[in-house]
Amino acid sequence: MIKKIPVLMTAILTITAAARAQVGPEMRDVRTAAGMTVHGPVGGQYFRMELRGKDTGRVRTTKKYWYRVDGVRFEFFSEDRNNFVMTDVPKPLDDRVVLDLYRSDYLRRFAGTKPPNWRTAWIDLASGKTALFWSYKKNAATPKPGHVSNHEMFLVVSGPGHVFGLFAQVPPGRTEADVRSILTRTLGRLTFADEPFG
Question: What is the pLDDT of residue 154?
Fold first, then answer.
């Protein structure tokens, strides 16, 4: 019986991971004349995001789903709404409420309290959606050796059943406004459909 417990736990964890479909292994990158298109399934629907710039591509790293646009590296991620929104909400929530809940959950899980130099703003995207932006300086008083940057930022948008977002650090020689502009243009080209994109 005791030998069966690890097998049972592994099966439960596998089922739980499968139930939380995120952007991931089935995602594809396709080179285009303007840069690159990233597309794939998530939560029973399909997404497509265009990366445009003089230098675009997938960043080869041990971390998953990192890309670059004109010298700015960023992570593309999604989070199932069920991870931070109560499942028994009587009516659909406005996108801004969902994004506020996600930001609050982020602070609770990763920061505990607002980090130094916390900034946040609502940004209208080219897609017609409204995104939530926040940035902060991590370990501002005592930066750790080897850190390229302690200035981090997120830009998130509400999509079908998930929050989709981009995470980046401000590299040396670049400004927050510059990096935010690239993230805003990129996330503004995120679209959704019921059928796979061709």
Answer: 95
* Predicted confidence (pLDDT) at residue 156 exceeds the cutoff of 90: yes
- Residue 41's Cβ-side half-sphere holds a number of Cα atoms within 13 Å equal to 10
pLDDT at 84: 80
**Residue 42 β-bridge partners:** 45
pTM of model > 0.90: no
The CATH number fitting domain 4-193, selected from 1.10.3110, 3.40.1000, 3.40.1800, 3.40.50:
3.40.1000
* Residue whose entry in the numeric block shows the structure tokens 């790293």: 61
- pLDDT of 36 over the 80 cut: yes
Q: Return the number of other C-beta atoms located less than 10 Å from residue 145's C-beta.
A: 4
Q: Which of 155, 160, 159 is nearest to 187 (CA)?
A: 155
Q: What is the mean pLDDT of residues 67-94?
A: 84
Q: What is the chain's alpha carbon radius of gyration, rounded to the nearest angstrom?
A: 18
Q: How far apart are CA 177 and CA 135, in angstroms?
A: 11
Instruction: Give the pair of three-digit tokens for residue 25.
Output: 């292994």
Q: What is the DSSP string of 1-70?
A: -TTHHHHHHHHHHHHHHHHS--S-TT-EEEEETTEEEEEEEETTEEEEEEEESSSEEE--SSSSSEEEET
